[in-house]
Write a structure and sequence with these properties.
Layout (H helix, E strand, L loop, with lengths): L1 E5 L4 H12 L3 E6 L7 E3 L9 H4 L4 E4 L11 H24 L6 E5 L31 H17 L6 E7 L1 E3 L6 H10 L12 E2 L1 E3 H13 L5 E5 L5 E2 H12 L9 H10 L5 H4 L7 H5 L9 H19 L4 H12 L1
Parallel strand pairs: 1-2, 1-4, 2-3, 4-5, 5-6, 6-10, 7-9
Antiparallel strand pairs: 8-11
């Protein structure tokens, strides 16, 4: 199978690229800064020679968009909107122009499209789209509008021969550097992994291996199209989520943070408190109904696996000290 990954150099793209390549598939990554043999240059906004990779491929998985890990200034919010809408629009145009269009186009979206909520989980059929909740910052509505426009651009594309799926993904947890798990684990190791603003807000998540399996499942299932939630069936309140992560790493205590402390921390990390404070309680309704089973549906088992892999990767990066110690012993003997 040939798969094209627009915007495939980020954390989620790296997860998919690694897994699909290991499974024997041909993967082409569209990126603004091609460096490897399988990477093709594009600008995410205009048609170009890169569209040749789409013609004749089996699947397109569009992940392009400015990272949400930034301060939510008007400039950054506009960049988030434009990068997502423009890339979805131009991918649709490339598919529409292809002599042999792909069978399926998976378009990244986000579980942030749902309302800030504590009482019930959002599935695709009964979930409440956000943007009008009371008692939350006004700019949170703009994040929802980004997601709506993202999905609308795909839905409006004239690609009748290509099935379209919008991936309303929760946070993808992988041990890769720079990902959300890396950030949360760093806070945990520093003793800062306690409840934020009380910790009642829900965290929806998905283990990276289940994310890959869900993508493969959606590529294979010709009867599934439209929005699909990619999230573990067991979201947790943030205080319990972080308690479990602390236990997996072996840290007994995590200092709590008030809302204003979270604001200061987010400012220092050049991020935004929406990522910490919005309650994302999402259920994988359509995946479960279609028969998909999660390999790691519980956060305790997922966290234990991620911590193990993180430590193994850190050990592999650490240079061995054996040669220098041996040399020191030899010098002393002489």
């Amino acid at each position: 199978m040939k798969v094209v990954l627009p915007g495939g150099t980020g954390q989620v793209g790296a997860v998919l690229d690694r897994a699909l390549t290991a499974a024997g598939h041909e993967v082409v990554v569209l990126t603004r800064s091609p460096k490897r043999e399988r990477e093709v240059g594009w600008d995410g906004a205009t048609l170009g020679p890169w569209a040749e990779a789409v013609d004749g491929c089996d699947a397109v998985i569009n992940l392009a968009g400015r990272s949400v890990s930034c301060r939510y200034t008007p400039e950054n919010l506009r960049a988030m909107m434009d990068s997502r809408v423009d890339s979805a629009r131009i991918v649709g145009e490339a598919i529409a122009a292809a002599a042999r269009p792909p069978r399926v186009w998976l378009q990244m979206s986000t579980a942030t499209i749902y309302a800030h909520r504590f009482d019930a989980a959002h599935d695709e059929a009964t979930g409440v789209i956000g943007g009008s909740e009371a008692g939350v910052p006004d700019y949170w509505a703009y994040s929802v509008e980004i997601a709506r426009n993202w999905e609308r651009t795909q839905a409006d594309a004239r690609t009748p021969a290509t099935r379209r799926v919008a991936l309303r993904s929760a946070m993808v947890m992988s041990p890769d550097r720079g990902g959300v798990f890396d950030v949360l684990l760093r806070l945990t190791r520093l003793g800062l992994g306690g409840p934020v603003a009380g910790g009642a807000q829900y965290v929806s998540w998905i283990h990276d291996e289940d994310f890959v399996r869900a993508v493969e499942f959606l590529i294979a299932r010709d009867d599934l199209e439209g929005p699909v939630n990619l999230a573990s069936p067991h979201p947790l309140p943030q205080r319990q989520f972080m308690r479990t992560l602390r236990a997996a790493w072996g840290v007994p205590v995590g200092l709590p943070a008030t809302r204003w402390m979270a604001e200061l921390g987010a400012f220092a990390m050049r991020s935004d408190t929406e990522l910490l404070l919005k309650s994302r309680r999402v259920a994988p309704g359509r995946l479960s109904a279609a028969g998909f089973t999660f390999a790691r549906s519980e956060w305790d088992q997922a966290a234990a696996d991620l911590v193990r892999r993180f430590r193994e990767a850190a050990d592999a990066r650490r240079p061995s000290q054996l040669p220098s110690r041996t040399a020191d012993i030899t010098t002393r003997v002489r």
